[in-house]
Amino acid sequence: MLAEVEEAAAQKRVGAVLGGKWRLDALLGMGGVAWVYSATHRNQSRAAVKLLRPERAADPEARRWFLREGYVANSVRHPGVRVVLDDDEALGTAYLVMELLSGKSLGELRVMNGGRLPARAVLEAMAEVLEVLAAAHERRIVHRDIKPHNLFLTDSGAVKVLDFGIAEMHQSVRASSPDRPFMGSPAYSAPEQVNPDHGPLGPATDLWAVGASMFHLLSGQYVHHAPSAAEQLYFVTSGPPRSLRLAAPDLPRSVIALVDRALAFHPRDRFPDARSMHTAVRAAHAELDGLPLLVLLAARPSLLPPAPELTTRLSPLEARTVQTPPLAMPRCDAADQLAELGITGSDVYLLDTIPLLEMIWADGEAQERERRLLDEFLEHHVQNVNELCERTVVSLEQGRSFVDRFLRERPDPELLALLRRLFADTRLDPAPASIRAARRQSVLDFCLDLGAACVAEFPQGDRGRFCQAEKALFEAIVASISRH
């Protein structure tokens, strides 16, 4: 309930204009310190805006820590760090303007890939992370919050290190103490970050976090089993962690050895520096076959374990509606062909709007009522998909941009042909004839087939409710189109 209240408060900021310059377009994410939005400048440039949460804005120390992130991040001077473009204050709080990224965090990719990532992909990503950390450490900056959700894979295949919010110059860094509360993420914090008795914080602290991130991405488990953050911190400082071999015995010895070394209890027993660990990661990577990092961005279900059978009790009508139609080609091949036609990333969750948009084109220009219905559909569709996936996979802004694209420019016939080929039993009439009852039904069925296929990788969700809600929305739009 609290999370819903907080999200509602963050959503209220959408549409606000900061300092007469930046309009907040859509909520991208929420954290304990700030909310992040996509935003448009009055000159039409795009960026991400990180807004300090209102309850923290009254604390001068919180504002100071928040605003200094830009100065620290930009001091690293490495392309693997997200650039902070500006900082200012508005609406009673502080904000940062940052480069707007498109892609997914390694934490998101791990979940999407069934809980673990391929070793080759993890090593490839960590090699780039270590290059960033080497540059930061040379400037005496310790990140202190390296974790999978702060490591971001862009659509172009680059890895970015995010959130320098608690980074410090390591001659001034102190561990937690009675007068200085703990700062960091318990599952990825080195012993000396939690208790100063284990040594000073420094570059080795970040290397431990890299090791903990690798442990989680490779095994699907945290380094320490613990039901709470407090117990997590206790185990971190209690003694050496378990070997990665116990959590993932199927991994190559070279990978296990380098992760175990990075997680050594004493800083002196870890790698001497980020460049040394980078060399070890590259050597282990050279020995491996498997999926390259960039392939994971497609989030292809072919990479996922087989989906379990649906166990939800459904009526015969609901069961027929929720059933995922068989694909006439491997999903990975479909993803490749869709990418060639400009459908990538989160676009896959919006594919089911394409037949409707083509139908609008076939019957003339979209009317105002149809545009309103499409926007209403998008609001519900985005909410339905994100609820089903139990995380944010697509935003309303992305949905509107996708639809606007195909309202300005008619869907490519090759794209429509590919969508028809996806399902062996689809009977969509390819001719752009005017709307008839049979054609309306075939379009509606086709949209539902696409919608079900797009969410097939999330069998644990209430797909019956999802498909029934989508069906009602599609029918309203189709009925509107048929009236003129």
Structural features, described:
The structure is a single chain. α18 packs antiparallel against α19. The chain has three domains: 2-98, Phosphorylase Kinase, domain 1 (2-Layer Sandwich); 103-297, Transferase(Phosphotransferase) domain 1 (Transferase(Phosphotransferase), domain 1, Orthogonal Bundle); 307-482, no CATH class. It is globular, with a radius of gyration of 25 Å. The longest helix has 22 residues, at 368-389. The chain has a six-stranded antiparallel beta sheet. With 484 residues, the chain is α+β, with helices and mostly antiparallel strands. It has helices at 2-11, 54-57, 60-76, 106-112, 119-138, 191-194, 203-219, 229-238, 244-247, 253-262, 274-286, 316-322, 331-340, 354-362, 368-389, 396-408, 413-422, 437-454, 463-482; strands spanning 17-18, 22-30, 34-41, 46-52, 84-90, 93-98, 103-105, 141-142, 151-154, 159-161, 168-169. Helix content is 46%, strand content 11%.
Show the helix and strand layout.
Elements: H1 2-11, E1 17-18, E2 22-30, E3 34-41, E4 46-52, H2 54-57, H3 60-76, E5 84-90, E6 93-98, E7 103-105, H4 106-112, H5 119-138, E8 141-142, E9 151-154, E10 159-161, E11 168-169, H6 191-194, H7 203-219, H8 229-238, H9 244-247, H10 253-262, H11 274-286, H12 316-322, H13 331-340, H14 354-362, H15 368-389, H16 396-408, H17 413-422, H18 437-454, H19 463-482
Which features does this protein show?
three-stranded antiparallel β-sheet; Phosphorylase Kinase, domain 1; six-stranded antiparallel β-sheet; Transferase(Phosphotransferase), domain 1; alpha+beta; 484 residues; 3 domains; 11 strands
